[in-house]
Amino acid sequence: MSTSHIPNTKSPSLPEHVIKALSIDNLIFGLDEDELKILLVRQTDPMHQGKWALPGGWIRYDENLRDAAYRLLEELTGIRDVYLEQLKTFGRVDRFPNERVVTVAYYALVSADNFSLVAGQTAEEVNWQSVNKLPELVYDHAEIIAHGLTVLRHQVCHQPIGFNLLPEKFTLLQLQALYEAILNIKLDKPNFRRKIMKMNLLSPCNEKQQGVPHRAANLYTFDAAAYEQLSQSGFSFEI
Amino acid sequence: MSTSHIPNTKSPSLPEHVIKALSIDNLIFGLDEDELKILLVRQTDPMHQGKWALPGGWIRYDENLRDAAYRLLEELTGIRDVYLEQLKTFGRVDRFPNERVVTVAYYALVSADNFSLVAGQTAEEVNWQSVNKLPELVYDHAEIIAHGLTVLRHQVCHQPIGFNLLPEKFTLLQLQALYEAILNIKLDKPNFRRKIMKMNLLSPCNEKQQGVPHRAANLYTFDAAAYEQLSQSGFSFEI
DNA sequence: TATCTTGTTGTCAAAAAGACAATAAGACTG
DNA sequence: CAGTCTTATTGTCTTTTTGACAACAAGATA
């Protein structure tokens, strides 16, 4: 939660078209030169006293949860076109001051340098901060981030979220290098290629990479539709 | 959601001490004689027109989410002492009639015959129903159950949670029947035996089952200590 | 042309998974 | 007690997957 509105019927600052007591918070993890970072905002709201927060806010009455997450993320940080997945809902009675506010957390894993940050709305500052040295955070956001990290580190092996860290079109070696970096292991190139290709999740672009001082590799895109279809018929991604 | 209260400020039937627009629903999966079932309730509320629902209801202002889930489960079904894990939050704009209601779903996997069901509060009937032939359900509860099944079936393949449903000492065929029921598939007896035994997670009791009208099978126990040790050295459970 | 780098395909043996036959141990029947 | 029924357990064979690594291809560069 990161708006300055208090979900209180006595507060005139709360727009009538949002759901009181229910908010969204986004955890955007970004890999930036081998360091895992998370996107944080600082509020104009003086009640936060300079603390940092996850980019989030209120859900509108006529808005699906994920739509609200996308809207808030773009409004506050300028980031769009990332795939947000629901993480967990946090609702400890005393997590928010004075009022009872439950928040639905969404998360994404992206390549930090692919996005230009534009602080908007109630956010006066936005930037990437290393998950290893986080600043002081509002409410229970530190707890939410800790949980998000646990889930992220587990999920990266069982779901193709690593693809989000690559450009739209990528080579098989880029994909392999990514998993080698995340999992901190060495993989066999031919065998990795075979394993990935047999999943039928990559579509060849029929293009080659440009400007490399050696034979250019074929470019592929991740076929999200194929993944949806396969995972619904029992397929499970494993690296 | 399964109470008769409509979260509408115009409705005098909504107690003031609950959070409007936010509810809990519990998915209690139970294994009953090798069949996977789910606990459903039927409401006294005539607006449901005899449809079945997940046991759930409103969250109180001064109540943590999981506490609300435990309270509602006991109030409506008499079940207590199960471990509830948060599944997901469902908030589609039109999932609930007339009003916007977001629901937080919790789930558990239990042995169905360990519990006696007592319909209470707004529930006029409670029972276990096979997940393979569900009755007509209120709101988006069919969707919630479908998601819960997906998560359950994924979890059960990657973590040895299924062992909790068996008695302390069990036969390999009991274990196999359990996985066949949850995954809704048929497994080959010799191959299943080999796969399980190679994990070194079962300790033979050097006892045989009693009172069966055929050759008695050997009994085994799940070696939790061995599992801890193996999983810390990189082993990952897979069925 | 030679050679360097990376891409891509091929090969082969070991391991695992899957299908199914065969045998074993009891209990029950006539 | 022989025969038969049911499930337990072991064995065997084939197919698939994995892992290690050789071989060749395509450009770029010297």
State the main characteristics.
239 residues, 5 helices, two-stranded antiparallel ribbon, Nucleoside Triphosphate Pyrophosphohydrolase, 2 domains, homodimer, 26% helix, disordered N terminus, Arc Repressor Mutant, subunit A, alpha+beta, seven-stranded mixed sheet, DNA-binding
Low-confidence stretches of chain A: 2-13
CATH class of the largest domain in chain A: Alpha Beta
| Most residues in contact: chain pair | A-B, 21 and 22 residues
Structural class of chain A comes to: alpha+beta
Approximate helicity band of chain A: 25-40%
Number of helices of chain A: 5
CATH fold type of the largest domain in chain A? Nucleoside Triphosphate Pyrophosphohydrolase
Describe this structure in words.
- Two copies of one chain form a homodimer.
- Helices cover 26% and strands 28% of the residues of chain A.
- The first copy, chain A, is α+β, with helices and mostly antiparallel strands.
- Chain A folds into two domains: 18-158, Nucleoside Triphosphate Pyrophosphohydrolase (Alpha-Beta Complex); 167-232, Arc Repressor Mutant, subunit A.
- In chain A, strands 1, 2, 3, 4, 5, 6 and 7 form a seven-stranded mixed beta sheet that branches. A two-stranded antiparallel sheet of chain A has the order 8-9.
- The interface between A and B is medium-sized, with 21 and 22 residues.
- Chain A binds a DNA duplex (30 and 30 nucleotides) through residues 171-173, 188-191, 193-195, 198, 212-218.
